[in-house]
UniProtKB/TrEMBL annotation:
<dbReference type="InterPro" id="IPR013750">
    <property type="entry name" value="GHMP_kinase_C_dom"/>
</dbReference>
<dbReference type="InterPro" id="IPR036554">
    <property type="entry name" value="GHMP_kinase_C_sf"/>
</dbReference>
<keyword id="KW-0547">Nucleotide-binding</keyword>
<dbReference type="InterPro" id="IPR006204">
    <property type="entry name" value="GHMP_kinase_N_dom"/>
</dbReference>
<feature type="active site">
    <location>
        <position position="136"/>
    </location>
</feature>
<keyword id="KW-0418">Kinase</keyword>
<dbReference type="GO" id="GO:0005524">
    <property type="term" value="F:ATP binding"/>
</dbReference>
<keyword id="KW-0067">ATP-binding</keyword>
<keyword id="KW-0414">Isoprene biosynthesis</keyword>
<dbReference type="GO" id="GO:0019288">
    <property type="term" value="P:isopentenyl diphosphate biosynthetic process, methylerythritol 4-phosphate pathway"/>
</dbReference>
<dbReference type="GO" id="GO:0016114">
    <property type="term" value="P:terpenoid biosynthetic process"/>
</dbReference>
<dbReference type="GO" id="GO:0050515">
    <property type="term" value="F:4-(cytidine 5'-diphospho)-2-C-methyl-D-erythritol kinase activity"/>
</dbReference>
<dbReference type="InterPro" id="IPR004424">
    <property type="entry name" value="IspE"/>
</dbReference>
<dbReference type="Pfam" id="PF00288">
    <property type="entry name" value="GHMP_kinases_N"/>
</dbReference>
<feature type="domain" description="GHMP kinase N-terminal">
    <location>
        <begin position="66"/>
        <end position="144"/>
    </location>
</feature>
<comment type="function">
    <text>Catalyzes the phosphorylation of the position 2 hydroxy group of 4-diphosphocytidyl-2C-methyl-D-erythritol.</text>
</comment>
<comment type="similarity">
    <text>Belongs to the GHMP kinase family. IspE subfamily.</text>
</comment>
Length: 288
């Protein structure tokens, strides 16, 4: 038996850090939404008691470090499953980009294996299991649009933002999430106005959404990686309605209403940035 599952990327419309916690993590408040840039996961039931990963991408591990492996392992252990699975990941989301690709693969495996192994778990239960794998996994289990607090696992559902184009560009640099959080100076940051962003989403006010995009981690990533700042400036120059870095970066995205401007931004960036994508905002929860 075989099952195909879609694993969409997320972007941060806001990302705020409230304080540093005792467990060495930072307390977050962020608005996240899904976009139509997705990995495709194929799950094939095996009679042998093994988890096999076909990652098909040299930057993605094929062993127990893969978050999709960890999702299958959690379910096998918790529910004493003796069957195995072959997980094939067609990677379309850029890796280590601030788009939660690995977390989304894990979430897609939780949703898919719930069906394949007939576990009948509720989405909330899958999200709870996902939180053991990574803090962005619970959001990815639901998809859609949400306010995320804690390390990202405390979720409040929000409506989908008005539909628009999202142009993404990932410069060819690696940015360590740990480095970004450790360099963050909480006295220096300008906090985004999360409440105004949420109001703007409820009012379906595209302009206010663009005006209130904000990510405190930009203060670090833009300082150490000027190419990220340059992409932001180029996107604005080419006519983006709103521009922001997602997560800890280095991907930068532009929100844009008009298709002609989407093409202008896409073509303008394609010349000097290898990984550029133009997709639609999704924002709706994933189907069960
Ligand atoms: C920035 C965000 C926003 O969604 O996403 P991405 O850029 O990965 O998409 C996340 O907070 C990425 O969280 P997560 O995926 O858990 O980060 P990890 O790689 O586990 O964290 C590496 C290190 O960063 C620091 N860290 C991480 C998360 C957090 N809320 N506070 C922290 O201080 C910790 O020191 C941790 O050991
Ligand atoms: N299924 C997966 N897809 C991508 N990366 C994965 C996966 N499983 C584990 N990883 C590891 O997680 C790291 C972070 O990947 P990713 O989830 O793409 O980025 P981010 O945390 O920036 O959103 C990668 O460098 C990779 O080694």
């Amino acid at each position: 038996m075989e099952l195909h599952v879609k694993a969409p990327a997320k972007i941060n419309l806001t990302l705020d850090v409230l304080f540093k916690r005792e467990d060495d993590y930072h307390e977050l408040e962020m608005v996240m939404t899904t976009i139509d840039l997705a990995d495709r996961i194929r799950l094939k039931m095996l009679d042998d008691d093994v988890i096999r990963i076909n990652a098909l991408n040299r930057y993605v591990p094929s062993d127990e470090r893969n978050l999709a492996y960890q999702a299958a392992h959690q379910l096998k252990t918790l529910f004493s499953i003796k069957k195995g699975v072959e997980i094939t990941i067609e990677k379309n989301i850029p890796v280590a980009a601030g788009l939660a690709g690995g977390s989304s693969d894990a979430a897609a495996c939780l949703r898919g294996l719930n069906k394949l192994w007939g576990l009948n778990l509720k989405t909330e239960e899958l999200a709870e299991i996902g939180a053991r794998i990574g803090s962005d996994v619970p959001f990815c289990v639901y998809g859609g649009t949400a306010l995320a607090k804690g390390r990202g696992e405390v979720l409040t559902r929000l409506p989908a933002p008005p539909s628009c184009w999202v142009v993404l560009a990932k410069p060819s640099i690696g940015v360590s999430t740990s480095f970004v959080y450790h360099q963050l100076d909480l006295r220096e940051i300008r906090h985004p106005d999360t409440k105004t962003m949420i109001d703007a989403i409820y009012r379906q006010d595209f302009r206010a959404i663009c005006e209130n995009l904000g990510n405190v981690l930009e203060s670090v990533t833009l300082k150490y990686y000027p190419e990220v700042k340059q992409i932001k400036e180029d996107m604005k120059r080419f006519g983006a309605d709103g521009v922001l870095m997602s997560g800890s970066g280095p991907t930068v995205y532009a929100l844009v209403r008009h298709e002609s401007r989407m093409h202008r931004i896409y073509n303008g960036l394609k010349g000097f940035c290898k990984q550029v994508y133009a997709v639609r905002m999704l924002g709706q929860p994933l189907e069960e």
